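Issue: ligand-bound run for glutamic acid - logging full I/O for the record.

Environment: standard queue, default settings, no custom constraints.

Inputs:
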Amino acid sequence: MEKDNVCINCSNQIDKVAKILKLGEAELDILTIPKRILTFSFPVKLDSGEIRYFTGYRVQFNDARGPTKGGIRFHPEVNLEEIKTLAFLMTLKCAVVNLPYGGAKGGVMIEPKRFSANELERISRGYIREINNFIGPDVDIPAPDVNTDSKIMAWMLDEYEKLKGRHIPAAITGKPIALSGSKGREYSTSMGGAYVLNEMADSFGMNPKKTSVAVQGFGNVGMNIARILHEWGYKVIAVSDSHGGIFNQKGFGIKDVIGHKNKTGRLSKFKGAKEISNEELLELKADVLVPAALEDQITKKNAGKIKAKLILEMANRPITPEADEILLKKNIKVIPDILANAGGVVVSYFEWVQNSQNYYWSESLVLERLKIYMAHAVKELSRTCTDFKCDMRESLYVDAIKKVLEAERLRGNLR
Ligand code: GLU
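Outputs:
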């Protein structure tokens, strides 16, 4: 088979698991070569009247377990290799939480802050026009990701429905509630991570009231998990955004921090806080470290300096494989992204179900069901990895890969 499209990061990431599961060549091909890769360029008229071309990607990695599912990000560092890796991780993530989905991811290489709201709307609509024939409720269902939100999903859905000439809300998730979105979706990624942490707290001998937390990233995910954990009695001692962080050993009242950030646009100059850099935040002596920003934050350069006892990966792939090895040797436990941040796609699934049935759930029902899905995935993990002394990432990969390959086998795509 032509190997041009291989996802190099995926091969590296499944190296160890491939040996444990004794995977053959056909199995490795399925797990490292995306089913469909779309790379396209599209014109957008800027406010100045100038026309600019943008590059977009959508990678549909594997659809054996169901339609592919995953977000679309707007970020200057978006590139095809990264999107392939993230689409692979979505495939595993959906399997970990037992959703009837495969995995996908998309993106546009832009710095969204440089564009006006009107320009972002035209970029969002232009992106959807390019992929409209390759997505749909039973094919591939986009959602928000880094720098994309419910407003952008609304424009994307509107463009899609205009092209198709009818209402198809289940084509995109993460929509505003007034446009058939789901209650609770906005903070579901964070709530899912908080449920996972609480489910595991006992096995780590952790009492929330005596547990300090440092959160890197104050976007939707970081801000909400800081808020939720604070409400549940955890002591949030540090938070940061892309400009830098703030620290207070006594802990923050997160509502006040959010108010300050909304008012000034920054975290800095918050009353009573010491200002720290993002690097310093990662190396703080906190019980739990929550990277909730971007990929590759903990690398072989700083892994040796991490002092947290436990890392809850709310961003996708915040720890490089080399850093993972170092943390393992230091006996720092890592709750991997494909479990920790799966709450978002779980509630996306609930949104899709509600759209398909045209019957909408209360917020408490959404949260109750989210908790059941997350708790079940934690139980499955602990079965594979009984006393949490093992490497959780390896266990989750083993479980998820088995589920994907079983679906391929049942379809007759593998012997
Ligand atoms: N972008 C989120 C993720 O990485 C959500 C994806 C979705 O809801 O489809 O999990």
